[in-house]
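Weekly sync, protein design subgroup
Attendees: M.S., D.O., the rotation student, P.L. (late)

Item 1: inverse folding check
M.S. brought a backbone from last month's batch and wanted to see whether the design step gives back something sensible before we order anything. D.O. pointed out we never logged the input encoding, so this time it goes straight into the notes. Structure tokens as presented (70 positions):
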């Protein structure tokens, strides 16, 4: 899947996310990691650059995706 936005590492430090959005992002990351584990997959290089942010094409909500399984 293509994430046209940014990695979490490139977020603007001068414009921090609201705490509520951080909780939503964290929940998405944990849910994604759990789904990967259920399929027997592991992201062996967890870092901010491997967490990609995009907008849902249906409703525009922010989505965080786990990337780089190479």
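Designed sequence read out in the meeting:
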């Amino acid at each position: 899947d293509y994430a046209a936005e940014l990695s979490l590492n490139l977020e603007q430090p001068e414009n921090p996310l609201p705490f509520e959005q951080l909780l939503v992002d964290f929940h998405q990351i944990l849910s994604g990691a759990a789904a990967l584990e259920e399929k027997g997959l592991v992201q062996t290089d967890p870092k901010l650059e491997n967490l990609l942010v995009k907008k849902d094409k249906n409703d525009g909500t922010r989505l965080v995706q786990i990337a780089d399984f190479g």
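Discussion: The beta strands are 51-55, 62-66. The longest strand covers residues 51-55.
Action: P.L. to compare against the previous round before Friday.
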